[in-house]
């Protein structure tokens, strides 16, 4: 879970460092690969409805993955990405984007609760998230590059966390199950 959190936070930090807002982070936007997660759906919030238009009931957007200010029609901003990072991590840990505090793993509890603050000014900065989670990691060492290095890969603080077992066993089992269901569906269609 730490690997997912640090890698996604670093990816967002790189985008924000380029003065871009992802505006589409959600559980569905996270693509899982053996060497780490990838973010897709860039700009989905902006594509779904223009600024100024409420987005709470727009088809294709999960209301649990919308920062309150974006759901109300506000412009996509970096702190909105922090909100939905929290919702995405909550989903990865519990299966839903707005869990009760006690449902969250202890290591992520204060982080997720902070990210899900309704007021953007009360949400943590990505550099603080990366620093806190990477330093809490049992594999963290002083040789890990700084959080400003950006994106998992060379110089990433997520690198030591993205070992062969970075995905929780239940997630691997779910991916295998869903992958196996695709060929089964194709066989049924051709009969």
Describe this structure in words.
- It is a single chain.
- The protein is mainly alpha-helical.
- It has a single domain, classed as Orthogonal Bundle (Transferase(Phosphotransferase), domain 1).
- The chain has helices at 2-17, 44-48, 68-71, 78-94, 106-115, 126-136, 169-190, and strands at 30-33, 36-39.
- The protein has a two-stranded antiparallel sheet with strand order 1-2.
- Helix 1 (2-17) packs antiparallel against helix 6 (126-136) and helix 4 (78-94) packs antiparallel against helix 5 (106-115).
- It is globular.
Q: Give a count of the beta strands, DSSP E runs of length 2 or more.
A: 2
Q: Tell me the CATH superfamily.
A: Transferase(Phosphotransferase) domain 1
Low-confidence spans: pLDDT under 50, at least 5 residues? 139-154
Query: CATH topology, which one?
Result: Transferase(Phosphotransferase), domain 1
Share of residues in helices = 40-55%
Question: At the first level of CATH, what is the class?
Answer: Mainly Alpha
Q: What would CATH call the architecture? A: Orthogonal Bundle
How would you characterize the largest beta sheet? Answer: 2 strands, antiparallel
Topology order in helix (H) and strand (E) letters: HEEHHHHHH
Q: Any idea what the radius of gyration is? A: 17 Å
Distance between the termini: 41 Å
Average pLDDT taken over every residue? 81
**Count of DSSP helices?**
7
Strand content: under 5%
Strand order within the widest beta sheet: 1-2
Q: How many domains, in number, for the residues?
A: 1
């Amino acid at each position: 879970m730490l690997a997912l959190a640090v890698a996604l936070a670093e990816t967002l930090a790189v985008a924000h460092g380029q003065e871009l807002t992802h505006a589409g982070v959600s559980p569905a936007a996270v693509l899982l690969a053996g060497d780490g997660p990838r973010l897709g759906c860039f700009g989905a919030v902006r594509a779904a409805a223009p600024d100024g238009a409420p987005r709470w009931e727009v088809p294709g957007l999960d209301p649990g993955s919308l920062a309150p200010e974006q759901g109300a029609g506000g412009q996509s901003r970096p702190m909105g990405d922090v909100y939905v990072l929290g919702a995405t991590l909550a989903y990865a840990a519990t299966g839903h984007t707005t869990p009760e505090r006690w449902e969250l793993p202890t290591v992520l509890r204060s982080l997720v609760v902070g990210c899900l603050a309704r007021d953007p000014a009360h949400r943590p900065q990505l550099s603080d998230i990366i620093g806190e989670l990477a330093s809490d990691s049992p594999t963290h060492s002083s040789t890990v590059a700084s959080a400003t290095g950006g994106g998992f890969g060379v110089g990433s603080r997520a690198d030591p966390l993205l070992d062969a077992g970075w995905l929780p066993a239940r997630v691997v089992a779910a991916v295998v199950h869903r992958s196996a269901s695709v060929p089964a569906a194709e066989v049924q269609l051709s009969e």
